[in-house]
Design brief:
By secondary structure, the chain is an alpha/beta fold. It is built from 13 helices and 16 strands. The protein has helices at residues 19-27, 57-65, 80-83, 87-90, 113-116, 119-122, 141-144, 146-149, 158-163, 179-185, 219-224, 293-297, 306-323, and strands at residues 5-11, 32-38, 50-54, 100-104, 108-110, 127-131, 134-138, 190-191, 198-199, 227-234, 237-243, 249-254, 256-258, 265-267, 275-279, 283-285. The strands form 3 sheets. Strands 3-2-1-4-7-6-8 form a 7-stranded mixed sheet. Strands 12-11-10-15-16-14 form a 6-stranded mixed sheet. A 3-stranded mixed sheet has the order 5-13-9. The longest helix is centred in the C-terminal third of the chain and has 18 residues, at 306-323. It is globular and about 60 Å long.
């Protein structure tokens, strides 16, 4: 059966509009469990490997607070990102029967996870992935408590991170001072190259991968030349279709595609469909009969992604208001 894996997701507020498609992609991964803690009581068709506990943000905050001997700063769900590195510790009772624990986001679609993250890879590293949207750790005392027991040196101190209302990206690199750097400085191994997934660039209209340039396996140059990209999900397999620099169709399987909170439109016939296409800039549509060069050439990506600039403007307005004490 391989290693038992659980991904912990505290989520508060309404799930996104394509959450049923996310659930379908989970259903197609029976080798992984998802443990969701949420206040969204919508009657979704949860598969058996997605286990839901209905709770409140305040209750989860209290559960996290119980692990600390000082007052934590956790005033809004977004700050939970910094606390992801604590989930193995905080949810240790719920994770007791698993070999690996981790965390992930719901603004993505899974492919066949275990086809990429094999037992051989899992057993060879102390952390799988450097990204907050998907990370795994061995379920050992050392890795459950690494966030507070490892020597941070010049990196972020966990007490500072968890007592401050600011966001530090501690669960990732945190300006090269987060948990990834702490683990590496303490001789631990992180599996994050090559890249098995597509992390969609937020400023592009097309579905271009934001992470390919970090891949040391030779994928970077090949990926940079691709155009007219779509993703096909078919009964648990996620494939990227594109045109190469010669206009030829290229196809490759992905572990998942992450949309980085890109707002998506669901235009598939069935809400829990196990066959759909991700089409730029932000649509889920029914699979076409054939994906050939002519079809891909018709994929228009020469537009401005106005959503990206609206988000940047909103962030700027919030910063200005905070600066002048008007937030």
């Amino acid at each position: 059966m391989g290693y038992r894996i659980a991904l912990v997701i505290p989520y508060f507020g309404k799930f996104n509009n394509y959450f049923p498609l996310w659930l379908t992609s989970c259903r197609c991964n029976p080798g992984v469990d998802w443990l969701i803690f949420t206040d969204d009581k919508t009657a979704y068709d949860y598969p058996s490997n997605v286990r839901v506990t209905y709770t409140t943000f305040d209750e989860i905050k209290a559960k996290i607070q119980n692990r600390f001997d000082f007052k934590i700063s956790l005033d809004n769900p977004y700050k939970l990102c910094d606390f992801k590195a604590t989930y193995g510790d905080v949810f240790s009772d719920e994770l007791r029967s698993y070999d690996f624990w981790g965390h992930c986001d719901v603004d993505l679609i899974w492919g066949n996870i275990r086809r990429f993250y094999t037992d051989e890879i899992l057993s060879s590293y102390d952390k799988i992935s450097d990204a907050g949207h998907f990370t795994l750790y061995p379920n050992t005392e050392e890795m459950r408590t690494a966030y507070r027991t490892f020597d941070a040196g010049d990196c972020l101190d966990w007490r500072e991170v968890y007592s401050s209302p600011l966001s530090f990206a501690f669960d990732e690199w945190g300006q090269n001072r987060g948990i990834n750097r702490i683990l590496l400085n303490n001789g631990k191994k992180i599996f994050y190259k090559p890249i098995f997934f597509s992390d969609i660039q937020s400023n592009k209209y097309g579905l271009y991968n934001n992470r390919y340039m970090y891949d040391l396996s030779g994928r970077a140059e090949f990926e940079a030349e691709k155009t007219h990209i779509v993703f096909k999900f078919y009964k648990g397999t996620l494939e990227q279709y594109a045109l190469d620099k010669n206009g030829q169709v290229v196809c490759g399987e992905e572990a998942y595609v992450h949309f980085q909170k890109r707002p998506m439109k669901v235009e598939v016939t069935e809400p829990y469909s196990d066959k759909f296409l991700v089409y730029p800039p932000n649509r889920f549509i029914d699979c076409p009969d054939k994906i050939d060069a002519e079809y891909l050439k018709s994929v228009d990506e020469n537009h401005i992604n106005w959503h990206y600039y609206r988000v940047r403007l909103d962030n700027l307005v919030r910063k200005v208001k905070r600066l002048y004490g008007r937030d």
